[in-house]
Structure formats: structure tokens, C-alpha cells
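Lab notebook, bench 4. We co-purified these components, and the gel suggests they stay together. Before we commit to crystallization screens, I want a quick structural picture of the whole thing.
Request: model the full complex, all chains together.
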Amino acid sequence: MVTPHDAGLAVLELKGIGKEFGAIRALHGVDLRISPGEVVGLMGDNGAGKSTLVKIIAGNFPPSHGEIRFDGRPVHFVRPIDARAVGIEVVYQDLALADNLTAAANVFLGRELKRKLGPFALLDHKAMAARALELFGELRSETRPHDLVRQMSGGQRQAVAIARTRLSNAKLVMMDEPTAAISVRQVEQVLSLIHRLKEQGVAVVLISHRMPDVFAVCDRVVVMRRGEKRADKAIADTSPEEVTSLITGAKEAA
Amino acid sequence: MMKKELGLFLLLAVISAITGAINPAFLSFVNLLNMANLIGLFGVFALGEGLVIITGGIDLSLGSMFALLGVIFIDLLTTYQVPWPLALLLVLMGGLALGGIQGFLITRLKMQPFIVTLCGLLIYRGAARYYTSDSTRGFGYGDEASTLSNIASGNVAGIPNTFIFLIILALILGVLLHRSVYGRWLYAVGKNEEAARFSGINTNVVIATAYVISGGLAGVSTVMFVFYTNSVSPSSFGNFYELYAIAAAVLGGCSLRGGEGSILGIVLGTALLQVLQNLVNILGIPNSLNFAVMGTVILIGVLADQQLQARRRRKAALAGLARTAPKATPGQGKQSTSTLSAAAVRTGTGEQT
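Here is the predicted assembly.
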């Protein structure tokens, strides 16, 4: 297991990231360093610049200023596919699953395994189900590959979405409010999924409004306010009260 | 997944049996072959319509496409004396091209499928009528395309070729839809286009391809209908046929919201529609009630399907509870209720099949 704050390479390094939309300054001078196996909570009020930052890292649009380094190399993403190619995956809030398909089908969506039959390539259902089962096992989720996503609980859906990121061996997984719309017990499941990712050396960025979740799984918390990074502290060195005052602006920076 | 098709098949069998019992002529060899011919004619383009509906779209232009491609086809063969293989090729290409244009407008220019294909319906019909000055086109006394005519309207050992074509095309499209990556993507795009796009699927290509396939199958159907009627009157040829296709697809389990449906379902849906039309004649029900009977059956069919699905979902939810509840709370009370509900599920699914 890789411990955070290892002196080793950062998986993601941002230097002076800024973004303007016309006259509106959405982000300004954001520096951020994330190590492998580190779970970083990204917090901030609506409009604080969290989503803009995530979208820049995910390649939805390029930053106006600054530099992104991934695995030690400078990277320039034009489209989300570029970010995915180097190993950045985003688990979206609405999960981006097709709920008329099975769990296995969703895990492999866009990356289906095929078997050749003469000149034709047919879906290899068996191999996909087996690999999906393996991935769910790794995540210690009881999700069954042949179940339709439509019939699943919020926690199981998260497991499917996270299994997708394991399939591509992502090095950085960003999760957008994964615990927003699910029951308490399922929140437990999702947090344990994050632990599984951490164990496997995957860096996780958890965007969340829920203070208890952030304090339960994160190594570090980053607070955004008005497009700037106001705090970047180890969880042990801060408290929910301090983070709240940073988010609201009662405390300017820490 | 197969429950819907099985239900539809049983419905088909029951209706056939009852009709046959009332009037044995329904099950006569001649009548069955006649129905097979009509199922073949109406099934081919229903398959294309089904694919389009699975993407969450709709194709309203099919009937008018038949008229336009039909008059061009006959004109090529009679007026211009084009050899039939070339004429056939041109008509098929024409269908693919019209489908391609519609697909382009829908995916690239982000227009709504209903509007694009509705305008197609109006434009193609108008073009066909203008091109022929509203006069009926037919074959003369010469045998311009007797070979093709024999292929399109002939039979093998009594089985109409149209029906054989339908089976072949259904098998091909069945593999495409249910066994290939393209089919998987079609379902994903139909249900959640955004999710498909996030997964790296080129959703525009997937959707446009469905319209192209639908257009191509419309080309095939045009040729079959032309040789079935032997003439094309541009103002009425193929009128409302797109609605038959939509009805067949919906009856066969396709959801107009996209992402649902199967090839087998569409074929069974077509068969059921044709059986209904036939039994109206056979049972001496006034012909004017034809559409009313069809509409009623579709309405009841879709309603029953929705109710069954809602019931199945409730059962599934209960089963989900039954699976997880004992683990979370090993209390005695919980456990007994969960085993109860599990038993209810078992009996429940038994009823449904």
C-alpha cells in the first residue's frame, strides 16, 4: 500500500491554474499536488470553482493559465478522451450509466470485449461477465454482473461506475458528489469503495458537500472559495468547524 | 428479457386458435401463406423502424419513401429500360441516401427526429406526385423485370419469398442488435445518450447508422411492394405504412423512449398486426372497423405490458430487500418477513410466464 505524502512522484500536479470565461474569472492561481493512493476532499460552496477545476483536470476544457503535470509529464487535454487516455477517470454525479443494460455491459460500455467469428466481431458476454465479477470482487461489492442497473441501489450503481474506472486502470479517480442521493447504509458502501481504490494505489479526488464523509475517508482536504484555493490541510490538522468557516468565508485562509 | 416475446407469442397463438376455431378457413394453407406474404412485406421495414425507435427516435417517412422510390424504380425499368440489377441497386442506394440525409439532420444539425422525418413524409410524397404528375405508374405488357419479379413475389416450396427475406434479414439484424458491439451501443445510446458519449461512443454515428439501415430496408420493401401491387399510384402507395411499422415495433416491445426492444419482438408484432387484419376479414367483422380493432389491441397490449412491468419491478425491489435485509439486521422479525417476500416472488414469477 502506498502511503500519502510519500516523497515519490505526484500523480497529479497543478501549478498556477487559472480559467476565465470572458470577463468572469472562475479560477485563479490554483496549485495542487496529489500523490498515488491519496484521497483528497475537494470542498467549497456552489460557484467556488470546484467543478471548473474538475472539468479542467478531466479535459472538458483547457485552463487559461497554468500547467498540469500528470505522472511527472506535462499534459494538455483537448477532449475528455485525452485525460482518460493517461489515466484520469471521472465518476459523474448522475453516474452516466445506461440503466437498460446489465452491470457488466455498463462496466464495459465503449470498451466491449469481442471474440472473432470469421470476419465478424461478436460481444464476448462470458469474458465480460467474468471480468466484471472480478472487479466487483476487488471492490468487495456484491453487485452481480447480470443484474440490470435499473434494478440496483444507489450504492451498487456507484460500484458499477467505480468498476469502470478500475477496468482502465485509472491512476486518478475524481468522484462528483458520490454520496449525495443515497441512503446512509449505501454511503458506507461507497466510502468503503473509496478505501478499496486507495488500497490499490489509486488517487481519489472526492468532491462532496458532506462533511462527515470527507472526514471519514480523506487524507487531506482542499477548500475552494471564489475561484481560489483557500486551504489545503491534512485531515488530522483540521476540524469540520474550521473547514466550514473556510467554505463560508468566515475564515479567509488556512 | 424474453418474457415479453413469449407473452406476445402466446397472444398470437391464442388469437389464431380462437379465430381458427370460429372459422377454419383462417388456418387453411392458402390463408396462412397469404398472411406469411403480408408479414414479410410489412416486417422488413418494421425492422428498420424498430432500430430507429430503439435509439429513441422515430421514422415517419417510410410510406412516402416507398412512393418516391417506387415511381423512380418503375420509371427506371420501363421508361429508361435500365437493366434490373442496376435499377435495384439504385433504389437501394436511394433508400440508404434518404436515410443518411435524415440521420445527418438529426445527429449533426440536432433536429428532432419527429420533425425531420415528418418533413421527409411530406417532401417525398410531394416529390413522387410531382415527378409523375400524379399519374399511376405500372409495368407495361413487356416483362421488364420478370427475373426480379419472380424473386420478389415468387415462392420457394410454396413459402412466399417475402417471408423468407424477412427471416433472413431478421436473423442478420438479430445478430447485429443482440450480439454485436453496435447493437450494444444502440441500446446504450437510446437509453442514455450522455452516458454513451462519456463512455467514448460516437453517438452521432450510432444514431445516424440506424436511420441509414431503416432507409436501406425501405428500399428493399419498395421493391417488394412494387412487385406485390405491380403499379404505384404516387398519392396512395405506402400511405400510413410507417404507422404499421411503429405499431408493430411498439407491440413487439420497443419503447418510444428508446433503449428497449428486440428483433424477435418486432417480427412477432408485425405478425400479430397482420393476423388481426386477417381475422377482421375472416370473421366477417365490417372492414371499416379494421383500424379500430388494431388500435384497441395495441392499446390493451401496451397497457398490459406496462402493468406487468410495474409488477415485476415491485417484485424485484422486494427480492432486493429479501437479499440484503437478513445480513444488515439479523433480527428474527426481519428475517421472517424477508423469506415471506422471497416466497411471494417465486410464486409471482411463476404466474407471469
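The two ends of chain B are 12 Å apart (CA to CA). Worth comparing against the SEC data before the next meeting. Chain B touches chain A at residues 175, 179-181, 184-185, 187-188, 190-192, 194-196, 198-201, 259-260, 313, 316-317, 320, 328 (CB under 8 Å).
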